[in-house]
Design a protein that fits this description.
Oligomer: single chain
Shape: elongated
CATH class of the largest domain: Mainly Beta
Strand order of the largest sheet: 2-3-4-8-12-11
Helix content: 10-25%
Number of domains: 2
Strand content: over 45%
Distance between the termini: 58 Å
Number of helices: 2
CATH topology of the largest domain: Immunoglobulin-like
Largest sheet: 6 strands, antiparallel
Length: about 200
C-alpha cells in the first residue's frame, strides 16, 4: 500500500513538473522583444511600419518610440487578461511623461530601373517639411494631443528622419498613437497606428 502511494505521489510530481515545463515554454513563446534602434535621444523600439506610395515613389516608413532608456529591456507578455509589460521583472503600466517619436522614412522608386543610380536628393520635394498630427487611441476613443516638432534630418541619401515629442503622462502602454502625416503640403496624406502590441516587424 505504501509502495502504491509512493508510486502515485512520484507520478503526480512528474505530471506537475511536466505541466509547469509546458506552461513555462508557452509563456516564453509569448514573451516578445522589439526591434531596437540606438539614437542620441535614447533607445528606440519599432512600433509601426508601412509603405506609402506617391506616383512612382514608394516610401517605407518605420516608427520608433524613444524616451532615454525607458524602452531598453522592456518586454511584453500575453496573458489571459491582455498584454502585460515589464522591465527587470517589474510591472510597468504607463508611458513616461514625454515620448519622443522617430518617424523614419526611406524613399525609393516603386519600380526600380535596371542599373539606375538614384540621386541623393531623390524625392526631396515630397519629403521636405511634412506636417504631423497625433492622437492617443484607446478602444474607440481618440484623444488629439499637441506635439513639439524637434528636428527634420536628412543627409545625402534616401533616408529621412523626423523627430517630435508628444505628451504621454499616465497614458497606458496598451494605448496606440495614431499619426496623420501630410506630405507635399497636403498633396499626399497617410495615417498609421503605432503601439507596443505585436507584430511590428
Amino acid at each position: 500500500m505504501n509502495k502504491e502511494r509512493v508510486h502515485l505521489t512520484y507520478g503526480a510530481l512528474l505530471l506537475i513538473c511536466l505541466v509547469m515545463s509546458v506552461a513555462d515554454q508557452t509563456t516564453e513563446a509569448k514573451t516578445h522583444r522589439w526591434l531596437v534602434k540606438e539614437t542620441e535621444f535614447g533607445t528606440g523600439i519599432k512600433t509601426a511600419s508601412s509603405i506609402v506610395q506617391y506616383h512612382d515613389t514608394c516610401v517605407w516608413v518605420q516608427v520608433f518610440f524613444i524616451s532615454d532608456q525607458f524602452f531598453k529591456g522592456l518586454q511584453e507578455k500575453e496573458t489571459p487578461i491582455g498584454p502585460e509589460f515589464s522591465k527587470n521583472k517589474t510591472l510597468i503600466r504607463t508611458f513616461p511623461d514625454r515620448l519622443m517619436v522617430d518617424f523614419e522614412a526611406t524613399v525609393q522608386r516603386c519600380d526600380p530601373r535596371p542599373k539606375e543610380i538614384v540621386p541623393p536628393d531623390y524625392a526631396s520635394g515630397l519629403m521636405t517639411g511634412p506636417t504631423f498630427e497625433v492622437s492617443w487611441k484607446r478602444g474607440a476613443e481618440r484623444r488629439t494631443v499637441p506635439l513639439q516638432f524637434r528636428e527634420e534630418r536628412h543627409r545625402p541619401g534616401l533616408r529621412w528622419d523626423y523627430f517630435f515629442e508628444v505628451p504621454a503622462k499616465d497614458v497606458p502602454l496598451t494605448d496606440d498613437l495614431l499619426i496623420d502625416v501630410s506630405l507635399r503640403h497636403g498633396t499626399s496624406r497617410t495615417s498609421l497606428s503605432a503601439g507596443l502590441r505585436f507584430p511590428h516587424e
